[in-house]
Amino acid sequence: MTTTLPLSRSSAACCCCAGDSLALHDVDHVRFFVGNAKQSAHYWASAFGFQVAQVADLTTGSREEASYLLTQGNIRLVLTSALGGSHPAAHEVERFGDGVKDVAFTVRDAKHAFQLAVARGATPTQEPTTATDDTGSVTTASVKTFGRVVHTFISRGGGYAYDRMRAGGPFLPKFQATTSALNHHNAKHPVGLLCVDHLVGNVRLGEMNPTVAWYEKVMGFNLFKHFDDKDISTEYSALMSKVMDSGAGLIKIPINEPAEGRRKSQVQEYLDFHDQTPGVQHLAFRTDDALQTVAELHRRGVEFLHLPDEYYESVWARVAKQLGHEVREDHEAIHKLGILVDADDKGYLLQIFTKPVQDRPTLFIEIICRRGSDSFGKGNFRALFESLELEQQRRGNL
Fold first, then answer.
1. Span 66-94, mean pLDDT?
2. Same domain, 150 and 230
3. Strand order in the sheet with 364-371
4. Is the domain of 252 the same as that of 378?
5. Is residue 386 scored above 50 in pLDDT?
6. Of 162, 188, 214, which residue sits at a domain end?
7. pLDDT value of position 292
């Protein structure tokens, strides 16, 4: 039997977590609110090679929502749909469509992290609560970040301990292991995604700096990179971005806002189809073999943005000049697959972006492979955004 115990916000913090640090350890999972979790799980498994690992639904005692845990490398996606009209997922899917609701962090003490975040000015969305069963216990607590998105702090004990969960053990109470016909195929034909490299939040004009300040004050993040409208612009549109970093190699969160331009930026297009509400625009998944990963995704039918051949006429010389040596991957294969290349003073990276993965242009996926570089492809911004504008024009939204 599972018991759920609310914890008082005024309770003293655990001594092992005393101090002013949230002690973020890992991205526990990214939760999506979706219209039909079973069908969405099939899409992510077939298109991106995720294992359908565990499920919590009516058959496991979950009466208000159905959730599927998808895993690949150290990536955990949770797809949640409502089983009734009063569930928050029902309202959000109607308003926003499918999308990211929660970026959850594993911490040593969820209650302490929550109390510290609230003391720093965070708005609580779920008070600390512990769920306990014969396997172990999990404590969760959540705070609001930009727009519709929340951060949940999770601390785990017993059979739900982080190391066991990461190795494929029990995820949360009411989740049970499941099987999918695609799991065997995906094991034999891996895509090779390793972890969440970063995720990008889109906010309204004028909200980037306040959001950055919130991450600095509440979450203890640092400003890692800053790109203005001169860095990220084309003839028609522009945006501004500040990259926030947890400081421990955990995750980076670029915050984008639209900038003035002759036509509508892709950030404004996102907001127009997201009820003018900030949210997560894309997830970047890291791989160590971009050629294998992207080739496999092509075979699975994933659609990527198209780059003109002219891009490759100059990219090799530009990158080699900055690096002092050639990119080691096969140049012809990179060109054939449509992968972008960029370099900084630490190395180079390979990256590619999907077209929107749903009917609303509010979510896409980036695949990134880092060969020393810790940047975000600044040299590719113009080519990328011109490609995005072509897609916006096709949708009638430029």
1. 98
2. no
3. 222-227, 238-245, 252-259, 193-202, 279-287, 364-371, 347-353, 340-344
4. yes
5. yes
6. 188
7. 98
Neighbouring-strand partners of residue 136: 158
313 φ, ψ to 5°? -70, -25
Entry pTM? 0.90
Long-range contacts of 241-245 (CB under 8 A, 24+ apart): 241/200, 241/208, 242/208, 242/209, 242/212, 243/198, 243/376, 244/212, 244/215, 244/216, 244/219, 245/221
Indicate if 49 and 157 belong to the same structural domain. Answer: yes
Give the pLDDT confidence score for residue 355 in this predicted structure: 95
Mean pLDDT on 212-234: 81
Number of folded domains that form the chain? 2
Contacts with 18 (C-beta within 8 Å, 6 or more apart), sequence order: 112
Q: Which amino acid is at 334?
A: I
Could you read off the pLDDT of 82-91 as tens digits, one per residue?
999 999 999 9
How far apart are alpha carbons 375 and 347 in whole angstroms? 9
CA atoms of 383 and 327, how far apart (whole Å) = 19
Mean pLDDT of 31-44: 98
Question: Distance between CA atoms of 334 and 341, rounded to whole angstroms?
Answer: 9
Please report the beta strands in 178-296, taking only residues with DSSP state E, as ranges in sequence order. Answer: 193-202, 222-227, 238-245, 252-259, 279-287
Write down which residue in 188, 205, 226 finishes a domain: 188
How far apart CA 223 and CA 333 sit, in angstroms, is 35
Torsional sign, CA 247, 169, 40, 82: negative
Side by side, the strands of the sheet bearing 176-177 are 3-6, 123-132, 136-144, 150-158, 99-107, 24-33, 75-82, 65-72, 51-56, 176-177
The residue among 143, 174, 168, 172 whose CA lies nearest residue 156 is 172
Range of the structural domain that residue 24 is part of: 3-188
Q: By the 8 A CB rule, do 220 and 22 touch?
A: yes
Same domain, residue pair 184 and 201 = no
The CATH number of the domain where 42 resides is what?
A: 3.10.180.10
277: phi then psi, degrees, rounded to nearest 5: -115, 130
H-helix or E-strand containing 293? helix 290-299
Token readout for 398 is 């430029």
Q: Which residue has the tokens 């005024």?
A: 10
> Does 105 lie in the same domain as 26?
yes
Average per-residue pLDDT in the chain?
A: 89
